[in-house]
């Protein structure tokens, strides 16, 4: 594998004021490969925005090195740093457009640092507007646009200097669900057509699910779990990760409903409430049928969903299995052997997984 | 005309003086507005960028500037006029007359305007500043192309405020030796009991203030796109 386009090593960011010291980011290392879409998830205050700002050195790390596009950011002169930043696009939660300028002028702003002449700049602006689908808004002002349109302008502006990297700081958090999907779709399209590497920061797992290839989960300044989207979604290890995933899959809502049902409330002694998760190929195998045939265990499906992550199906089932309790361990082992994650749920509990 | 002359018995005898005083007030206002405007704007920007949330935080510089502005803003203008008279004499060569009045007017207006500029510019969305930094903009770029541009409607608003207060100051300067409408109102209108002169001087100043306010409002509307 070639060198990662973003390589953060042992990044620590500490904020000090008179009364307290805040460790926003603690010793985080992160590599992002060229062309990847990397999601960083966490609740607000987890340090993800601070971490992503060390990539373009808007935030100078207290210690650690950031190597981006092969350049060690901390070693660059002020001038070289400005040049380096032009190859790292960034979009923001609140779009951060200049209200005093038209849409075209907003997109043109970063081009003043390019070598293009006026005619070339005009063409570039027109091309970018077309790319984000806002050809007819060139002379409008930001205040006249909807949130989704503003973010499109933000994206066009971020792409003006043909960056290899696009940093998205909660870029969809201020948008409604439909617009969020549109913007995520646009980001995915840009990744596929331009090959641009995207780092996406969000507190919504649904956004990550829609576009990311890799995910890191942050809590209290540290990355507590990371991996490919499929691995994280099918086999989350940390409680926080599970929490995010269940919220995204609305499993928490489903489970709350399931727990109210008579079959669960009066769960028989020879029955177990289970959460089954499976990925890809196992989806096709007749799991439930073979359970009955081999172990005499019947399954009552209370909730089920299948989602496609990067074109791979990921299934979630909440079931009650009943039969001879002596057969359960073997039946569960068999399921696990087929790649199904089996979690026994407390029928009365409030914990999701 | 005869009606006006009847209503304004004293003014009608000294129209040329009224005209002259008006020009003097305009001269003092415009020249000191230009000088104090440039210096006050620079000082205001300096305060904004050296602020701890600014683009080049520098606590020592900020604190010194901040204290200086506070001190000079606290000095009543009438006292300032007399206190800085040696400076006036050193710069202009004399301490009386319109040109001499420019020195205290400028000195009195700079800190006022600087503070107004500062309050206007700190309201520029920090996110927009950050976006410009992320695009590789230099600090000079950010000052001229982001702060002053994005803050323009507010800058116009505070400039109008400053200009109006400056017109007021010229009247006060007039009372202590400079010319202008303030001098006319005090030395003729008040001291010779020719109250119609005072009223005319006041009306002319009101017209100036309304004009400044009107033009300012129009410019603010033109530059606001929210």
UniProtKB/TrEMBL annotation, chain A:
Presence of keyword Ribonucleoprotein: no
Alphabetical UniProt keywords: Amino-acid transport, ATP-binding, Cell membrane, Membrane, Nucleotide-binding, Translocase, Transport
PROSITE patterns: ABC_TRANSPORTER_1, ABC_TRANSPORTER_2
Alphabetical list of SUPFAM superfamilies matching this protein: ACT-like, P-loop containing nucleoside triphosphate hydrolases
An annotated Gene Ontology molecular function: ATP hydrolysis activity
InterPro entries the UniProt entry points to: AAA+_ATPase, ABC_transporter-like_ATP-bd, ABC_transporter-like_CS, ACT-like_dom_sf, MetN_ABC, MetN_ABC_transporter-like, NIL_domain, P-loop_NTPase
GO BP annotations listed: amino acid transport
Domain ABC transporter: 6-245
Highest taxon above the source species: Bacteria
Protein name stated in the entry: MetN
UniProt lineage: Bacteria, Bacillati, Bacillota, Bacilli, Lactobacillales
TrEMBL record, chain B:
Domain ABC transmembrane type-1 stretches: 22-216
Protein family: Belongs to the binding-protein-dependent transport system permease family. CysTW subfamily.
Family annotation (PANTHER family): ABC TRANSPORTER PERMEASE, D-METHIONINE TRANSPORT SYSTEM PERMEASE PROTEIN METI-RELATED
Membrane-spanning residues: 26-49, 70-88, 94-114, 155-177, 197-219
SUPFAM superfamilies per the UniProt record, alphabetical: MetI-like
Superkingdom per UniProt: Bacteria
BP-aspect Gene Ontology terms: D-methionine transmembrane transport
Main location: membrane
Gene Ontology, cellular component aspect: plasma membrane
InterPro entries per record: AA_ABC_Transporter_Permease, MetI-like, MetI-like_sf
Gene: metI
Keyword annotations: Cell membrane, Membrane, Transmembrane, Transmembrane helix, Transport
Membrane topology per record: Multi-pass membrane protein
Source lineage: Bacteria, Bacillati, Bacillota, Bacilli, Lactobacillales
Subcellular localization: Cell membrane
Protein name stated in the entry: MetI
């Amino acid at each position: 594998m070639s060198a990662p386009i973003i390589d953060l090593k042992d990044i620590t960011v500490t904020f000090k004021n008179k009364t307290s010291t805040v460790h926003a980011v603690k010793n985080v290392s992160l590599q992002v490969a060229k062309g990847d879409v990397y999601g960083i998830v966490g609740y607000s205050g987890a340090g993800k925005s601070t971490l992503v700002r060390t990539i373009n050195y808007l935030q100078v790390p207290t210690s650690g090195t950031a190597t981006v596009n092969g350049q060690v950011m901390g070693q660059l002169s002020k001038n070289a740093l400005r040049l380096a930043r032009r190859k790292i696009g960034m979009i923001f939660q609140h779009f951060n457009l200049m209200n005093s300028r038209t849409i075209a002028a907003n997109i043109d702003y970063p081009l003043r640092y390019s070598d293009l002449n006026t005619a070339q700049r005009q063409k570039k602006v027109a091309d970018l507007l077309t790319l984000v689908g806002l050809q007819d808004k060139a002379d409008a002002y930001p205040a006249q646009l909807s949130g989704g349109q503003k973010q499109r302008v933000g994206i066009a502006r971020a792409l003006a200097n043909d960056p290899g990297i696009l940093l998205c700081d909660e870029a969809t958090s201020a948008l409604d669900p439909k617009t969020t999907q549109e913007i995520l779709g646009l980001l995915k399209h840009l990744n596929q057509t331009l090959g641009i590497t995207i780092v996406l920061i969000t507190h919504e797992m649904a956004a990550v699910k829609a576009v990311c290839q890799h995910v890191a989960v942050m809590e209290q300044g540290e990355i507590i779990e990371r991996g490919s989207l499929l691995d994280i979604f099918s086999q989350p290890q940390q409680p926080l990760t599970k929490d995010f995933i269940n919220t995204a899959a609305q499993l928490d809502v489903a489970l709350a409903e399931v727990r109210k049902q008579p079959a669960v409330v009066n769960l028989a002694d020879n029955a177990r409430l289970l959460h089954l998760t499976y990925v890809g190929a196992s989806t096709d195998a007749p799991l439930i049928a073979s359970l009955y045939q081999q172990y005499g265990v019947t399954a009552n499906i209370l909730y089920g969903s299948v989602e496609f992550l990067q074109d791979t199906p990921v299934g979630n089932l909440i079931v009650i299995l009943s039969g001879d309790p002596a057969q359960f361990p073997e039946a569960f082992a068999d399921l696990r052997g087929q790649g199904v994650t089996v979690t026994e749920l407390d029928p009365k509990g409030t914990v999701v997984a | 005309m005869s009606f006006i002359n009847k209503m304004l018995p004293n003014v009608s005898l000294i129209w040329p003086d009224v005209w002259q005083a008006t020009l003097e007030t305009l001269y003092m206002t415009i020249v000191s507005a230009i000088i104090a405007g440039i210096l006050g704007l620079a000082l205001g920007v300096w305060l904004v960028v050296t602020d701890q949330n600014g683009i080049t935080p520098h606590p020592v510089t900020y604190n010194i500037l901040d204290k200086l502005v506070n001190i000079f803003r606290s000095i009543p203008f009438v006292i300032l006029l007399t206190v800085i008279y040696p400076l006036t004499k050193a710069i202009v060569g004399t301490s009386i007359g319109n040109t001499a009045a420019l020195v205290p007017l400028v000195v009195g207006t700079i800190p006022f305007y600087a503070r107004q500029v500062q309050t206007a510019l700190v309201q520029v969305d920090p996110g927009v500043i950050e976006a410009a930094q992320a695009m590789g903009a230099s600090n000079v770029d950010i000052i001229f192309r982001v702060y002053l541009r994005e803050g323009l409607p507010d800058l116009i608003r505070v400039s109008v405020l400053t200009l109006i207060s400056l017109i007021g100051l010229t009247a006060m300067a007039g009372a202590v030796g400079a010319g202008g409408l303030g001098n006319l109102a005090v030395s003729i209108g008040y001291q010779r009991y020719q109250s119609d002169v005072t009223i005319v001087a006041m009306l002319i100043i009101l017209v100036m203030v309304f004009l400044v306010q009107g033009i300012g409002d129009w410019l603010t509307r033109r530059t606001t796109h929210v």
